[in-house]
C-alpha cells in the first residue's frame, strides 16, 4: 500500500534567522497578494520567497532557485544529518476551545489515484497547476506539505508519540514543537505498508507532483527523489485535526427557486441554527427567517444535486456561521445553506468505497504552514532512496 519514508529535511537555522514564527508562512493557496507583500517585508528569510515568489513569468521561479541556493550557502537552511521523520505538534484554538494538532512530516511515493493507495476525498474545481509545476521544476523542492490523514485502528500513533515526547525538540515555543526522529524508522514505514493515505488538503499539489514524477521517470528511466512528495500525516482519530463544514451563500436565484426547494425537501421553520454532527440536516437562511430540513443522502450530496439544477447561481463558500448570516443580512447575498460537518468515519466510508464528495464539502483546520521543513530532491538522491 502506501510507501512512506524518512528524508533528509532542510530546517531553518535559528542562530541566523531568529524566531521561527517570523520566517514560516501559510500554504501558497491561502496567501493573499497583501499578505505576500507583508511576509516579504516581515523577514528577509521568510519562506514566502520560496513558496510564492514575487515577480513575473519565469523570473519568479529563477529567483526562488537563486534564493534557495543562497540560503543553503549562508546556512540559513541546514539539512538533517540523516534521513528522519519530523514530528510536529501545534496548539490552536477553535470555538474558544484549545486543541492540539499532532502529526509528522514524511515523504510518500506518488501513485495515480486509480491505484487506490493515495486517495482524494472530494472533487476539485479546475485550477491551473502550471505555477506549482514550474516552481517544482526550478527548485526541486516541496516547501509546504500536502495535508493527509490515515486511519490508525491499533493505536500505533499514540505509542509513537509517547516515545517522541521523551526526546528533546528541535525547536519549541508556546504554540508549537518539532522533533527530529531518526530512530523507529522501520516501525513507522512498516505501519503504512497495509494502509491507504487520504489527501485532506492539497489535491492540486499532489496532481502536480504526479505529473512531475511521470516526466522525470520518463527522462531518467527510473524512480528517484522526484517519485516522492512531502506530506504531513495525521491520524484521523488522535491527531487533533478539525473537520469543519463549508456553508453556501447564494445570489442570482430564479423566481421559482424556493418553490423548487420546497418540492425537493420538507422545510419547517426553525428558531435558531445549531451546528451538530447530524449529517442529514440542513438549514436554509434568508434575511429574518430560518428553515431546516432533512435529506435522504448526506446533506452536502443532496444540496449539491439540488443546486446543480440552476445555471446562473453565484455561490460563495464560508466556514463561519456568523459570516454567512452577515452576508445575507447585509444584502450582499440573497440566502444561504448551512450544513453540519461530516465525521471522520463518514469520510472514511466514502473514500474506501471509491466515491468522492462534491467540491467544497470539507475544510480541514488548522493548515500546516510552509517552512517548518523542506524536502529537497538534490539532498535525497542517495542512500535515502534505498529501502528503510
Features:
388 residues; alpha+beta; Conserved hypothetical protein from pyrococcus furiosus pfu- 392566-001, domain 2; 2 domains; nine-stranded mixed β-sheet; six-stranded antiparallel β-sheet; 29% helix; 26% strand; globular; disordered C terminus
Walk me through the structure.
The structure is a single chain. The chain is of the alpha+beta class. The chain has two domains: 4-242 and 364-385, no CATH class; 247-343, Conserved hypothetical protein from pyrococcus furiosus pfu- 392566-001, domain 2 (2-Layer Sandwich), CATH 3.30.1760. 29% of the residues lie in helices and 26% in strands. The chain has helices spanning 14-17, 33-42, 48-51, 59-73, 130-139, 156-164, 185-191, 203-220, 257-264, 299-307, 321-329, 344-352, and strands at residues 4-5, 9-12, 77-79, 85-94, 97-109, 118-119, 141-142, 146-150, 171-172, 176-181, 197-201, 228-235, 242-245, 247-251, 268-269, 281-286, 289-294, 314-318, 335-339, 362-365, 374-376. The strands form four sheets. Strands 1, 4, 5, 6, 8, 9, 10, 11 and 12 form a nine-stranded mixed β-sheet that branches. The chain has a six-stranded antiparallel β-sheet with strand order 15-17-16-19-14-18, sandwiched between helices. β4 (85-94) and β5 form a beta hairpin. α4 packs parallel to α5 and α5 (130-139) packs across α8. The longest helix is centred in the middle third of the chain and has 18 residues, at 203-220. The protein is globular, with a radius of gyration of 22 Å. The relative contact order is 0.19. Mean pLDDT is 92; it is low at 383-388.
